[in-house]
Design a protein that fits this description.
The protein is of the alpha+beta class and about 400 residues long. It has 9 helices and 16 strands. Strand 8, helix 5 and strand 9 form a beta-alpha-beta unit.
């Protein structure tokens, strides 16, 4: 009896120690990538190149290689060039996807991705900040996702999940329009038919109240079935669409099953205040554990099926030309649309709406969820005036809105 108790204590100690090590490693990665010295990792900048070098060093430390019989990348990098418009003029930007590979000599390959670029010193088109130029460190967006795939690569290298190969991609150019992932799917470095599925990690560092959003569960019949078997403290909210504002979309559009892991919007999104000290490392560790369990569930199941979903781009989805200037809380499960952040200078800010307010009516449309919120927005054009009703605590407040 005493021996069993001592063994149990020893196992518990080892688990606590391993968890502490994982959190420490995640903190190391995010602290470096989101430091002021990298000036916000703007796509194509010298600072983004420093970030790429760090990611490569971490893959090398985990003995994750950069080539196999199917493809070869020079120094772990897949170079690409794109031409975004800046102030109505075309510019030329050089991006680099960072790529590493675990070769288990399997028939299929799973892709785990996260973008490592961010907004540099910010700009009016992409930043939600309206002050003087300031470094946008992007700790949650998306140093958190990069840290996640680095540590998953190390765990998978040592794991018994050997029925698939694993390709890890840190994408460049995501913030400017998914350029890195678009380039990858057009130049995939391996036979596209051998890609089983893609997992995308974008903003996974701010888990609040154990809530995690997993988008894309409708892209394969295997997702829900496997996720039901996972034991986790995380309360997972799912959406079906394979299309969203992140790199998984590029893969979904090539008929690859996808999941996008997301801990939710917050008031620091695309602002200089998205800093490392706001990361929830226990929550991020839980995300890593959740994904490892998912990979274990699917390890010996063979190639999973793909399903086309009813996407956000579907013609049934309302189209709108104005914005309220808020960030929705995608983890909210009540009635209405809960505001998770308000952008300075936009209609909601001018109407003195606050984070935590729940929009229940916009104009004549009662807001039940995100779809009815978008339907309400679609009724208006620039210059229109209307009223919005929000629940603030136990009160219902009405405000004037000018678009």
């Amino acid at each position: 009896m005493i021996k069993k108790l001592l063994l149990l204590i020893s196992i518990c100690f080892q688990l606590v120690f391993a968890n502490a090590q994982l959190q420490q490693a995640l903190k190391q990665h995010i602290s470096f990538l989101a430091s002021d010295s990298l000036h916000g990792r703007m796509t194509g900048s010298k600072d983004e190149a420093v970030a790429a070098k760090y990611i490569i060093e971490q893959f090398k430390k985990g003995e994750i290689q950069n080539k196999n019989n199917n493809f070869s990348t020079k120094k772990y990098l897949q170079h690409f060039v794109f031409h975004p418009k800046v102030d109505s003029a075309k510019t030329t930007v050089n991006g680099n996807n960072v790529i590493a590979f675990i070769d288990n000599h399997a028939k299929q390959t799973i892709i785990l991705g996260a973008h490592y670029d961010h907004l540099g010193w910010g700009d009016p088109k992409h930043s939600t900040y309206r002050g003087s130029p300031a470094i946008h460190n992007g700790a949650d967006d998306n140093a958190s996702g990069v840290a996640t795939i680095i540590e998953l690569s190390k765990l998978l290298k040592k794991s018994s999940c050997t029925h698939n190969n694993y390709l890890f991609v840190a994408f460049s150019g995501e913030e400017l329009g998914l350029y890195g992932s678009k380039w990858f799917v057009e130049h995939p470095l391996l036979d596209s038919s051998k890609i089983d599925y893609m997992l995308n990690f974008d903003m996974v560092g701010r888990v609040d109240s154990n809530k995690l959003v997993v988008n894309g569960v409708g892209t394969s019949p295997s997702w829900n079935e496997s996720m039901k078997k996972i034991s986790s403290p995380l309360h997972v909210k799912t959406t079906e669409s394979g299309i969203g504002p992140s790199d998984h979309t590029s893969f979904y559009l090539k008929n690859v099953p996808v999941l996008h892991f997301f801990s939710g919007q917050h008031k620091d999104y695309h602002k200089p205040s998205d800093d490392e000290n706001k990361i929830n490392y226990k929550g991020l560790e839980d995300v890593v554990s959740y994904v490892m369990q998912l990979l274990q569930q699917l390890d010996d199941k063979g190639k999973i099926g793909f399903i086309k979903t009813k996407d956000d781009s579907n013609e049934d989805t309302p189209k709108f030309t104005v914005t309220l200037g808020v960030m929705p809380d995608y983890t909210f499960e009540g009635e209405g649309m809960r505001i998770d952040g308000v952008t300075d200078g936009k209609p909601a800010s001018k109407a003195e709406l606050k984070t935590g307010d729940v929009v229940v009516q916009l104009g004549e449309v009662k807001v039940k969820d995100m779809m009815t919120y978008m339907k309400a927005l679609s009724q208006f054009k620039k210059g229109d005036n209307t009223k919005v009703k929000v629940k603030r605590g136990n009160e219902t407040i009405e405000k004037d809105i000018h678009f």
